Amino acid sequence: MQLRTLLASVLLSSQVLHAADHDIVIYGGTCSAVIAAVQAKKMGKSVIVVSPDKHLGGLSSGGLGFTDTGNKAVIGGLSRDFYHRVWLHYDQDASWVQQKKSEYGGKGQGTPAMDGENRTMWIFEPHVAEQIFEDYVKEFGLEVVRNEWLDRAKGVKKDGDKITSITTLSGKTYAGKMFIDATYEGDLMAAAGVDYHVGREAQSVYEEKWNGVQVGVLHHGHHFGQMNISPYVVPGDPSSGVLPHINTEPVGEYGSGDKKVQAYCFRMCLTNDPSNRVPFAKPEGYDPKEFELLVRVFDKGWTDVFHKFDPIPNHKTDTNNHGPFSTDNIGRNWDYPEASYERRREIITEHERYQQGWLYFIANDPRVPKEIQQEMQTWGLPKDEFKDNGNWSHQLYIREARRMIGSYVMTENELLKKRPTPDSVGMGSYGIDSHNIQRYITPEGFVQNEGDIGVSTKGPYEIAYGSLVPKKGQGSNLLVPVAMSASHIAYGSIRMEPVFMILGQSSATAAVMAIDAGIPVQDVPYEKLKSQILKDGQILHFDGPTSMRGIDPKSLKGIVMDDTEAKVTGEWKESGAAKSFIGDGYSHDSNAKDGKSSLRFEPKLTKPGKYRLMLAAPPNSNRASNAAVEVQYAGGVKKLKVDLKSPKAGEGVYWIDLGEYECSNDTAITISNEGADGYVVVDGARWLPVEY
Residue 62 in 3-state DSSP? Predict the structure, then answer.
């Protein structure tokens, strides 16, 4: 009896030792995974990164080099350290191979030159980001295993609500005290039985305005607008069949929920340096008929192909989706979040084939406008990026997949400051941004995109600790910093790479505290967690300017009013898709053409006199050429028709000169969409004193 008791005791001891192989097991190879591991190691814990990916960094090393930052002042801790290391790299002349540093200039560099220790750079080449993540691995002695894929069917072992180990498809088991799911897909979280959601919630679920199906809402210009393009093979003839990339199912009712997710794409790194350029090759399975919709868009006069060829160092780009038919493979990813690994690989291959076909088509098909084709032929893939993957990114842009339904769900109400956020563990500030989710046929028989949303958060917002942990009883030793707990529309802002690093660091900090106290992650004392997070340089609250995304109106000459200061009549939407604007965005009328919307600017002049009056409006070919403007001045009222398509750049803003007027304190500028033949877009107004 004593022998059996002794053997049982020895067996139990060995199991306990096995379960403590690592203090923290992190599943995923994203930027959040690496940063979480660094934080755990800095706090004295043993940690292993179990990565299904060969390359570390996710999107940050996979092509997203033109960082979506929002307000850089709220990016702190190890997240900011990453961008400081980017600056250190590009501060060396040897880093500028295809381009001189002076030629590129200071674009993307954040903090002042006198603050040498904290200089940052937010724009970088993919291989530079990957090297920085690998430097973290070496510097902190991180244990990383690669190409290890979680056995999602039976690879998660639990004792009650506590995960004890995970097993990968290769049969390897990794045991630990705490687990962090740092994947875009939330695979560990889902396999552990934690509640989650895929797709859009109905507006009624969390009392949100911008969630659910947004049919009829046209933001950003990533739609067909009033082009009135036929979706049929033979224009106007439904019997001829529907063109590729159009969903024939009903679009859904406004505000209703669905299981569809916003479009994916590859953030392409391209170059126009002939010495480093690989011409676009015809992909296997290429069919030019797949791009008939794009031809019809070109035929309508749309030419804005290169708007999102955002420049990164050494004559390269971070190229993102732009326009009604671009690199987003709309509607071809809905099953990705829950799909098997095999099916996901099929989806990834399909996206790669589509996007490479899009490039090849524009560069070679005779139906493409000559000037666009000639420009595209100057671009290609860079020889020195993604060398083991045909110079193509190894990471598809998983804009959203599963989202945990955790202890606290972040919604647009927290982001828009309609209600307070409890227990901040980091901040976000990028605009609420959803890409299109479906392409459908309107009742009038035209093609249209749906799901694209761009709404300003009006400055930084806090992110709740409860959004990183499961509900009590579902996972007492699991944290989820990437597929975290947020509604579809709130996740559209939170899902930025700097924020994933912030949340990864906070998650690791909480995991360490839960280990030390022997408590569930849901019970980590917030004040203690807050103290450590602040000590480590994170930003949890912000009382500074509401926006650093655009140009501060106070920095401009004269009396400048942002569009947010205007008196509003009718329905106006917010956007921030243009490259330059005042404040945190600008207003547009959704191309309503109903004559019901106007903005009136009434400044407080310091003194009467002669002023040059101007309107600010980011240009685009879809703007109205005849926007109705009324100028109220000392001599009366002058009515104008102004062209919003091509304002002139000045001081980083695009201005339309309305002329010189004698003005007193009752001066005003009013712009409306009455009789407009395109989008009425307004960024602000200015009264510039005329100097004699």
Answer: coil
Spell out the long-range contacts of 551-556 with Cβ–Cβ below 8 A and sequence spacing 24 or more. Answer: 551/580, 551/581, 551/582, 551/583, 551/651, 551/652, 551/653, 552/583, 553/582, 553/583, 553/684, 556/582, 556/651, 556/653, 556/686
Distance from C-alpha of 215 to C-alpha of 443, rounded to nearest angstrom: 12
CA–centroid distance for 619 within its chain: 23
Q: Provide the β-strand partners of residue 574.
A: 587
DSSP, res 402: E
Both structure tokens of 575 = 């956007």
Q: Which long-range contacts (CB under 8 A, 24 or more apart) does 512-516 make?
A: 512/23, 512/24, 512/39, 512/40, 512/43, 512/44, 512/45, 512/178, 514/178, 514/477, 515/23, 515/24, 515/45, 515/177, 515/178
**Using one digit for the tens of pLDDT, what is the confidence trace for 502-518?**
999 999 999 999 999 99
Residue 5, SS3? helix
Query: Do the Cβ atoms of 600 and 629 come closer than 8 Å?
Result: no
Determine what percent of the chain is predicted with pLDDT higher than 70.
95
- Of residues 89, 93, 83, the one with CA closest to residue 121: 83
Question: How many CA atoms within 13 Å lie on the side-chain side of 73?
Answer: 12
Tokens of 227: 């082009």
Q: What is the pLDDT at residue 111? A: 59
CA 506 to chain CA centroid, nearest Å: 20
Angle at 659 between CA 654 and CA 664, to 5 degrees: 110
3-state secondary structure of 244: coil
Work out the mean pLDDT of the chain and round it to a whole number.
92
Query: Does the pLDDT value for residue 107 go beyond 70?
Result: no
Half-sphere exposure of 553 (CA within 13 A, CB side): 22
Detail the DSSP E strand segments found in 271-315. Answer: 277-278, 309-312
Q: Cα 236 vs. chain centroid, distance in angstroms? A: 36
CB 610 within 8 A of CB 660: yes
- DSSP lists the bridge partners of residue 569 as 598
Please state, in angstroms and rounded to a whole number, the distance separating the CA atoms of residues 18 and 454.
49
Encoded tokens for 165? 């180990």
Alpha carbons 601 and 671: distance in angstroms, whole number: 9
The three-state (H, E, C) secondary structure of 345-398, written as one string: HHHHHHHHHHHHHHHHHHHHCCCCCHHHHHHHCCCEEECCCCHHHCCCCCCCEC
Instruction: Please name the residues in contact with 133: beta carbons below 8 A apart, sequence gap of 6 or more.
Output: 31, 34, 56, 57, 60, 61
Please report how many Cα atoms fall inside a 13 Å half-sphere around the Cα of residue 202, on the Cβ side: 5
Task: Quickly tell me which residue has 């045991």 as its tokens.
Answer: 175
* Pick from 19-33, 193-207, 535-549: least confident: 535-549
- CA dist 108 and 130 (Å) reads 18
* pTM of the shown model: 0.84
Residue 651 identity: E
